[in-house]
Amino acid sequence: MVNVPSIELNDGNKMPQVGFGLWKVENDKAADIVYNAIKTGYRLFDGACDYGNEVEAGQGVARAIKEGIVKREELFIVSKLWNTFHEPEQVEPIVKKQLADWGIDYFDLYVIHFPVAIKYVAPEVRYPPGWFVDGDSKVEYSKASLQSTWHAFEDIQKKGLAKSIGVSNYSGALLLDLFAYANTKPATLQIEHHPYLVQPKILELAKSENVAVTGYSSFGPQSFIDGDMSLAETVPLLFDHPVIKKVADAHSKTTAQVLLRWATQRGLAVIPKSSSQGRLEQNLDVTSFDLTEEEIAEISGLDKNLRFNAPLNWGIPIPLFS
């Protein structure tokens, strides 16, 4: 089994550097996929309310624990607060619902999914609630501040519902603001990160504040071409990019492994997913070889500041990154 290194978080907890992302994992396959990923050696699973598959992911975890493949304390389970639950009084109830869906007592890491608060939708009305208050096209914002939401996060950490707390999709300005009011600094920052969106300045800021960074969508447009996003078709797929292929050939690795090593060698955690056994194993084995400094620089030089995972790109009229 591959030995995956851990990143020590600023709260003393340890997070595997390579995990499995549950975004777009189909419900009818999620339990088996999670179970098989655990058998393969994955210990970090990155989920979210909005993915709509937490019940099934939890079933895969329960099966692996029941069979003695893994103990709960050996897993690092991540989930996220959706935008409709930012009111402080809604945070603890929804965390408890998500824990019940997973069938566990605590999250190893709980994260604010997006830095935007939209109007509350009760779980019994619609779950996951999505971006629109009417489930169709209407956006209505909440008055909950990010500061009030963060203090609610600090409360759930004190109560043991989440061992670590963090944020996702925050800008540098929002991070600086968070550092000013936080009693507990975020342990992690999760951002879109690939050679077309390197974000070096926010990486520098996070490092200077000892906040670990997890990069998602490590394969760039590959994650979005099946989502009817025309933007993903405007650039070469990174799997086919001549620079990535050249580096992969030089190390006798796949282009996916090179993309993940480019991130992990620079200190980031990654959360790829695959349903292929061969790729599952390859994606986990991305810390056992090193790229040269020149190769890392050449890959970083592909940066186009091209963000795929923005609401506007999905036809959602929320200019979050504008």
Automatic annotation (TrEMBL):
> Catalytic site residues?
Y51 (proton donor)
Q: Where is this site: Lowers pKa of active site Tyr?
A: K80
Tell me yes or no: is Magnesium among this UniProt entry's keywords: no
Q: What PROSITE patterns would the database entry show?
A: ALDOKETO_REDUCTASE_1, ALDOKETO_REDUCTASE_2, ALDOKETO_REDUCTASE_3
- Organism of this sequence: Aaosphaeria arxii CBS 175.79
Name of protein: Aldo/keto reductase
> Which parts of the sequence belong to the NADP-dependent oxidoreductase domain?
18-303
A Pfam match = Aldo_ket_red
Q: What terms describe the molecular function in GO for this protein?
A: oxidoreductase activity
Q: Which family does it belong to?
A: Belongs to the aldo/keto reductase family.
State where substrate binds: H113
Q: Does the keyword Zinc apply?
A: no
- Alphabetized UniProt keyword annotations: Oxidoreductase
